[in-house]
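Entry 14. Structure prediction run on the chain below.
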Amino acid sequence: MIDRRSDTAVSTGADMTGEHRRGHWYPWLFVGFFGLVFAVNAVMIGIALSTWTGLETRDHYRKGVAYNEVIDKQAAQQARGWQAALGWTALEGTRGEIAVTLHDRNGDPITGAGVVVELRRPTQASLDRLVPLVARGDGRYVARETLPAAGNWDARLVIRNGDDSHIQMERLWVAE
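Output returned:
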């Protein structure tokens, strides 16, 4: 209704009784939508921060500075032509025998070397372990080990024979 004296609209009382214009709740849809997006993001961030163990590199600066030395060592390793083969024989559950067979470029066995296998769990650094192997003759080095979990393991073979060394990465699958 219009007040004829001032030409202004006068409330009829409809707004006072709780009746609103159609669509008054549309802004609340936006608020609810973005509230839901923020809540889901907060949950996902919380999960990501509490479960990601991360990939870490110790002494990253020193390793970066010595990169050319690493390239030179790899070239010398390739020139030596050593061949290392990693094997896993399951015994019971995650207990098994890890073996490395080592030959020179001519196929002759390399004996008297020190062989260590660094077993690294790709997703959980707390399970990593060092396994020193014992020479069994004919270039074969062996150890028995019980691993704390089945699945994929990264095996880093570190072989030293006199002043020469050989480093090789392998992927190892351990079944239950």
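Residues 158 and 167 are 5 Å apart (CA to CA).
Filed with the rest of this week's runs.
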